Amino acid sequence: MPLRPRYTGLIDRYRDRLPVHDDTRIISLGEGNTPLIRLNNIPRIIKKSVDIYIKYEGLNPTGSFKDRGMTMAVTKAVEEGSRAIICASTGNTSASAAAYAARAGISAFVLIPEGKIALGKLAQAMIHGAVVLQIKGNFDQGMDLVKQVGKQTPITIVNSINPFRLQGQKTAAFEILEELGGAPQFHCIPVGNAGNITAHWMGYKEYHEHGIVNDLPRMVGYQASGAAPFIRGKMVDTPETVATAIRIGHPQSWDKAWSVQKESNGWFDECTDPELLAAQKMLTEHEGIFCEPASAISLAGAMKDIAAGKIPEGSKIVCTLTGHGLKDPDTAIKQSTRGVIPTAANLDAVKHTILENLK
Ligand code: F0G
Fold first, then answer.
1. One domain, residues 125 and 227
2. Are residues 55 and 24 in the same domain?
3. pLDDT, tens digit, for every residue of 131-166?
4. Is any ligand 1 atom within 6 A of the Cβ of residue 193?
């Protein structure tokens, strides 16, 4: 007898809440079940009495929350007899699609924007054997092309317009509710295509409607200032941000996300690139948590809204960190203050450097 039942992925765990049959062949890499980490130091540093929990989605198998949706989307694609999947991606979806396609033994085609994809994500798509099409255009243009391919070929689209993606991703909300024993007051989350904010709200509402919990959070979605259609109130044609994961001007779940905002009595807000980078650094240096720039916008935004009093002191807040910091090593290295210190290979030199750099 194992001491604890083996964790076999979110479809197995939430089988009764997901559209699978008893004989469905599940394509899983053990995704989900990510840690919910309470911040110890940052509330003290910002001198606010708030309870901030980090849902560390970067610890999914391919390093982002996309795996929650991908296990469902690929499982269903295989069940329906599909031999190939396709997506447009700012990087994480392509990495996840490539991995799950490899696991399933089917082909993956991914369209990525030229020059604007973080190195780790590109490496993942390539090593898993996806066919990587680098287009001379941005994510939104890639998405348009993928939709056209989807209409004209039997290839399954695995972007979040595939409803099974949202079904898988809603399980993150289940996990949060189970772990906290109820809803946080605020759930802060990065917004690109707005699939994830939509999926979380679905999950929260599902547990609420079934009487498993009595409360619901207010959903707060953050966008980078240069790619903020929800804050501008209209599509943005040339999105720009260091947070390449959310460099999106034409969100695919536009209407759904506005409904989330209204139903949950939440709001959308923006953060500048320096603000989100500062939050990324703060998390790494003061909490030991490493996320990619786009993910840090949830904490950057929360800190801003706490300072502005929109999120009152005493609140319980969940911030989703959507992707691991290793996804984007270039930005991480640029962000480090100390750099590397060239040191002679002798004890005196090493001791000298240690003494000079003690905290
Ligand atoms: N955070 C990260 C790290 C992402 O990769 C994405 C989306 C988001 C947040 C936004 O989530 O689109 O559901 O609102 N990345 C997609 C991709 C677009 O292609 O990997 P959303």
1. no
2. yes
3. 999 999 999 999 999 999 999 999 999 999 999 999
4. yes
Q: Are 242 and 264 in contact (CB under 8 A)?
A: no
Say how many domains are in the chain.
2
Q: Ligand 1 mean position to 357 CA, how many Å? A: 37
Interval between CA 246 and ligand 1 midpoint (Å): 6
pLDDT band of residue 5 (cuts 50, 70, 90) is confident
- The candidate with the shortest Cα–Cα distance to 97, out of 58, 56, 66, is 66
Distance CA 272, CA 274 (A): 6
Answer yes or no: is the C-beta of 160 below 6 A from any ligand 1 atom: yes
The pLDDT tens digits of the residues spanning 303-324 come to: 999 999 999 999 999 999 999 9
Specify whether the CB–CB gap between 123 and 232 falls below 8 A.
Answer: no
Q: What six digits make up the tokens of 320?
A: 């989703």
What pLDDT, in 10s, does the model give residues 37-86? 999 999 999 999 999 999 999 999 999 999 999 999 999 999 999 999 99
* Residues 51 and 89 grouped into a single domain: no
Nearest residue by C-alpha to atom 4 in ligand 1: 245
Last residue of a domain, one of 106, 133, 162: 162
| Spacing, Cα 223 to ligand 1 middle (Å) | 11
Tell me the residue length of the chain: 359
Class of residue 205 by CB neighbours under 10 A (exposed 0-12, middle 13-18, buried 19+):
middle
Q: Are residues 98 and 246 in the same domain?
A: no
In a domain, 340, yes or no: no
In a domain, 354, yes or no: no
Assign 258 a pLDDT band (cuts: 50, 70, 90).
very high
Q: Is the domain of 172 the same as that of 45? A: yes
* C-alpha–C-alpha distance, residues 168 and 178, integer Å: 16
**φ and ψ at 329, to 5 degrees?**
-65, -30
Domain with 158 in it: 66-162
Would the CB of 203 count as within 6 Å of ligand 1? no
Q: How far apart are CA 198 and CA 268, in angstroms?
A: 13
In this structure, is residue 355 part of a structural domain?
A: no
Residue 356 lies in a domain: no
Residue 1: band (very low, low, confident or very high) from pLDDT cuts 50, 70, 90: low
- Retrieve residue 113's tokens: 């924007």
